[in-house]
């Protein structure tokens, strides 16, 4: 067994994700099986292999075409963005109280 | 129902005034009204926007000015691609009422070329799935076999074109999500190179893998749509400045003498024997066209699924952190900020998304990062090297797209790992960043479509389309 119930709880906590009791157990079993499968990567010796951190090679990346750092006005209207918020108070997004007095 | 239109057909009919763009859009909405209740391919229709665009095209026709490449062409867009003013759900309850305030670059370019956006197509939630059964809005049915899945995650985009409810569509491909549904629905479907098409406005799943690409009824139309959406965009720093060739004319080039690599590793166990027969017959078609067929080795193929489900879930766990009930989407109230986050995400995400967030967070977490995420990135290098080695010897690589044809709804939902293994032939190219197409390669029992996958070197879309087009012209679809 690779993953325990406590592991799933810890990870769900890191991801700010409420899971029900039955989800916890289901995910523990399924992720255990997936991690078992992923374990096959250990068959490969990668001691001298560089990790692939990006897809494009240096000459393909836009680094070759870095733009000037100039201010360009945003085309999107702030009120349209705020309209999508569950609890807007223009020009702010409102959240539950964070600081206790 | 009348046959689906092609892009050339639309252009000729508009230019000769046989039909107006408004009439054509109206015709497609009638088709959708008739068939979509059974198929569930579209989630949202954008009639106002479509008819306004059709009227602009009709005014252009009336003025006698030259028509842009996609003038009046009815196109569907996967619901993970942002459309200003048109609801975009990602197949998720967490974005049930989300209306983007801007367009994705790909959408903007389609409309600038005259395309008429009919609506948004169903998909697996946040593009996570291989059957479209992970949509919060119900599965899509395969137009060729309604008791079966259309594939995923771009199942709605594939089904819409296959059923004649759009001339072309946009999907997204992270591990096979364009090519596999293209194969299962029997239409050509292309994943361009990483960096070829701007991802601006594509709601992110796994940023080092996500790509936008087209579905159409024929390879030439795939080439035309790709040519419109491809190219550098200042809003996506990973979109490259590589020049965009005329893909439609690239597709016409002869294929005689091209060297085709057949990787032995893609023909092992797990493949349906009927799929194997069709794909082997497809390879014979390429041989008869004068291609040189060579067996090659890609020794790290067998590790691709394991790598993919580390990298993709890790990136997803990070990208999906933005759904926090503050700026957009669902909010479930809690007695503190953190409890609001937890409840919102717990209630808003479906089972597969939560599973991937948990797995992705785990492989990135302290103590496991090196063993999983870093190891995955290293093996990803080896897989990309397999492709570089292959393209030193051959011009293209040909494989099956999917080990199985369309399966029955519900048949594979119980075991996520089994579902993941369905992506075995597609995830390799996703990890390597190369372009790939799935092109129809006959139907099993005259009913269930099989796809032939063609990979090209990075930015070798022209080569891929050239082979796919020759294969199609040689009758590959009716094998």
Q: What order do the helices and strands come in, and which of them pair?
A:
The complex is a heterodimer of chains A (101) and B (479).
Chain A: H1 5-14, H2 21-38, H3 78-82, E1 88-89, E2 92-93
Antiparallel strand pairs in A: 1-2
Helix pairs in contact in A: 1-2
Chain B: H1 7-15, H2 21-39, E1 42-45, H3 47-63, E2 74-78, H4 105-112, E3 116-121, H5 155-162, E4 168-173, H6 179-185, E5 189-191, E6 211-216, H7 219-229, H8 247-250, E7 259-263, H9 273-288, E8 292-296, H10 304-319, H11 337-348, H12 351-364, H13 369-391, E9 396-400, H14 416-421, H15 427-432, E10 436-444, E11 448-455, H16 461-473
Parallel strand pairs in B: 2-3, 2-4, 7-8, 7-9
Antiparallel strand pairs in B: 1-3, 4-6, 5-10, 9-11, 10-11
Helix pairs in contact in B: 2-3, 7-16, 10-12, 10-13
Structure at a glance:
The complex is a heterodimer of chains A (101) and B (479). Chain A has 101 residues and is mainly α.
CATH architecture identity of one domain in chain B: Alpha-Beta Complex
Strands side by side in the biggest sheet of chain B: 5-10-11-9-7-8
CATH class of one domain in chain A: Mainly Alpha
Order of helices and strands of chain A: HHHEE
Please estimate the helix content of chain A.
25-40%
Straight-line distance between termini of chain B: 25 Å
CATH superfamily of one domain in chain B: Amidase signature (AS) domain
CATH class of one domain in chain B: Alpha Beta
Of all protein chain pairs, which has the greatest interface, and how many residues does each chain bring to it?
A-B, 56 and 75 residues
Q: Can you give the mean pLDDT of chain A?
A: 90
* Number of helices, counting only DSSP H or I runs of 4 residues or more of chain A: 3
Quaternary arrangement of the chains shown?
A: heterodimer
Decide which structural class fits the backbone of chain A. Answer: mainly alpha
Secondary-structure arrangement, i.e. CATH architecture of one domain in chain A:
Orthogonal Bundle
């Amino acid at each position: 067994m690779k993953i325990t119930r406590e592991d799933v709880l810890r990870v769900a906590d890191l991801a700010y994700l409420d899971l029900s009791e039955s989800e916890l157990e289901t995910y523990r079993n399924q992720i255990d099986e997936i991690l078992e499968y992923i374990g096959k990567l250990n068959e490969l010796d990668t001691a001298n292999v560089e990790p692939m951190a990006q897809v494009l090679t240096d000459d393909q990346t836009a680094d070759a075409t870095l733009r000037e750092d100039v201010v360009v006005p945003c085309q999107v209207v702030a009120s349209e963005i705020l309209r999508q918020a569950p609890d807007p108070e223009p020009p702010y997004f409102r959240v539950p109280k964070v600081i206790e007095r | 129902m009348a046959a689906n239109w092609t892009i050339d057909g639309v252009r000729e009919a508009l230019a000769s005034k046989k039909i107006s763009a408004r009439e054509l859009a109206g015709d497609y909405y009638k088709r959708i009204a008739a068939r979509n209740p059974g198929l569930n391919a579209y989630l949202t229709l954008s009639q106002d926007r479509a008819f306004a665009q059709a009227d602009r095209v009709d005014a252009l026709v009336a003025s006698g000015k030259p028509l842009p490449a996609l003038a009046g062409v009815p196109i569907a867009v996967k619901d993970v691609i942002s459309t200003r003013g048109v609801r975009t759900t990602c197949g998720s309850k967490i974005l049930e009422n989300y209306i983007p305030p801007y367009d994705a670059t790909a959408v903007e370019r389609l409309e600038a070329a005259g395309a008429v956006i009919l609506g948004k197509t169903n998909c697996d939630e946040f593009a996570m799935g291989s059957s479209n059964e992970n949509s919060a809005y119900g599965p899509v049915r395969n137009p060729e076999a309604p008791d079966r899945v259309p594939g995923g995650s771009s199942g709605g985009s594939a089904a819409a074109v296959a059923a004649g409810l759009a001339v072309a569509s946009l999907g997204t491909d992270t591990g096979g999500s364009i090519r596999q549904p293209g194969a299962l629905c029997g239409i050509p479907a292309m994943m361009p190179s990483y960096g070829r098409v701007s991802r601006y406005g594509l709601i992110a799943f796994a940023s080092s893998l996500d790509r936008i690409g087209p579905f159409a009824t024929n390879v030439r139309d795939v080439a035309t749509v790709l040519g419109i959406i491809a190219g550098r965009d200042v809003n996506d720093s990973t979109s490259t400045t590589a020049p965009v060739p005329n893909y439609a004319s690239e597709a016409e080039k002869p294929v005689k003498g091209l060297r085709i690599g057949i990787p032995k590793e893609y023909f092992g166990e797990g493949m349906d024997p009927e799929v194997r027969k069709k794909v082997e017959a497809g390879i014979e078609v390429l041989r008869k066209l004068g291609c040189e067929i060579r067996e090659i080795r890609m020794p790290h193929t067998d590790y691709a699924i394991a790598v993919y489900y580390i990298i993709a879930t890790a990136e997803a766990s990070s990208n999906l952190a933005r759904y926090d009930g503050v700026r957009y989407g669902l909010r479930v109230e809690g007695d503190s900020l953190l409890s609001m986050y937890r409840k919102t995400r717990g209630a808003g995400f479906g089972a597969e998304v939560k599973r991937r967030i948990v797995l992705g967070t785990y492989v990135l977490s302290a103590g496991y990062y090196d063993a999983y995420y870093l190891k995955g990135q290293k093996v990803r290098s080896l897989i990309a090297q397999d492709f570089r080695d292959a393209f030193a010897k051959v011009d293209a690589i040909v494989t099956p797209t999917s080990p199985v044809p369309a399966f029955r709804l519900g048949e594979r939902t119980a075991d996520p790992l089994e579902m993941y293994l369905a992506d075995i032939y597609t995830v390799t190219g996703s990890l390597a960043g190369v372009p790939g197409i799935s092109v129809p390669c006959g139907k099993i029992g005259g009913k269930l479509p099989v796809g032939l996958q063609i990979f090209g070197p990075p930015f070798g879309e022209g080569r891929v389309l050239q082979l796919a087009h020759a294969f199609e012209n040689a009758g590959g679809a009716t094998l």
